[in-house]
Hints:
This protein is of the alpha/beta class. Helix content is 43%, strand content 12%. Helix 9 packs parallel to helix 10 (254-264) and helix 14 crosses helix 16.
Amino acid sequence: MAEHMDPEEFRRAGHAVVDWIADYWATLGQRPVTSQDPPGALAAALPAGPTAHGEPVAALLADLDALVAPRLTHWQHPGFFGYFPANTSGPSVLGDLVSSGLGVQGMLWASAPACTELETVMLDWLAGLLGLPERFRSTGPGGGVIQDSASSATLVATLAALHRASGGRWRQVGVDRHYRAYTSTEGHSSIEKAARIAGLGRDGVRMVAADPQTLAMDPDALRAAIRADVAAGDVPAIVVATIGTTSTTAVDPVPQIGAICAEYGVWLHVDAAYAGAAAVCPELRWSHAGLEYADSYCFDPHKWLLTGFDCDAFWVADSAELVEALTVLPEFLRNAASDSGAVVDYRDWQVPLGRRFRALKLWFVLRWYGVEGLRAHVRSHVALADRFAARVRADDRFVLAAPHPFSLVCFRLAAGDDEASAGLLERVNATGRVFLTHTRVAGRFTLRLAIGSPLTTQAHVDDAWELVASAAG
């Protein structure tokens, strides 16, 4: 029987694993971005079950090289331009390693005091870094917490909004009337999912028209939808505005939306999952105008701020309201610190009870890069997107399909039908040198190039353009 790994064995194995990761990063540019193997290839290559006796780490690393790595989509590849980025970095990986090694469970302050307190401080640091309103800081009535994703943040905001809209009845009787959620037609799919989980159903979500030019939510259409629901006896509960929509990075007009929410007493949640990171740069904080109206706000450091998945930063303006909506306190969790009211128990700020020590990787990243390092990272990608967009604009075979305020460029062929642009995307991705994805803008098939990897340089973006240009014929 294999024995537990002792500290010295762990030290040796750990060096080998870190070396493997470093070699992986060093060779990423030489690998195809995506696997060309058919579905089921890895499953077919694995044995039918585990070995009867333990194997050395060297055997695991050999199989990583031979079986797993060749069948990945390499999200850290310098030619990965698909979806939105899911950055990681050396400091983040090291912070995650320490978190795993400590193995603490941060459900309560009492269960891991430093886990809770470091998270509170890191969210305050981030709030300052992004220039968020003071009411989101832990020094006032609000505060921040790390969720696993913006999807969870939207769900938590929806539950808190239902609690408020029901006057507290929701905790006892559930969804007892027709509550409504509102978002743009460009809003993320997680908004509908949150509404369905919360019991509102798909019909409980009002999809508000977007401006055809900016692709941002139309405030007049939002007001009309809320008025119509109120007149029908329905209860507007939450509006989700987006800073940086998934398809095109459109920015909803939060000042106007916020004023409408304030007028009708509706919870305003602002989803800045991708584009929130841009606010580390003062010149890009225009995108966050109107946040003083927000009841909650989130962004994903795991997208564009060099912190590995999963790490969503979520703030509320009134933490007591959130805790009241979500808290459940069985006897086995009671303790003197919680009863004193002097500590934060983050179990009351999320759906699950248990929680990892995610703040460590954020702490490592913020301390390694510093404010100016993070700003340089974001600015370099915005400049690269501008460079790619300029090449698109200068070639009359292509058109830009949407504004590009951050590091995403949406474009398509100027002539031909959707099949022509779809064929172009397929040819470009088939090279294995880059990976782009698509969306639809005004009903038209549109290519998306999202810059985010810390390994991506001007040479990689220029190579992507040359591939696109040559594949267009």
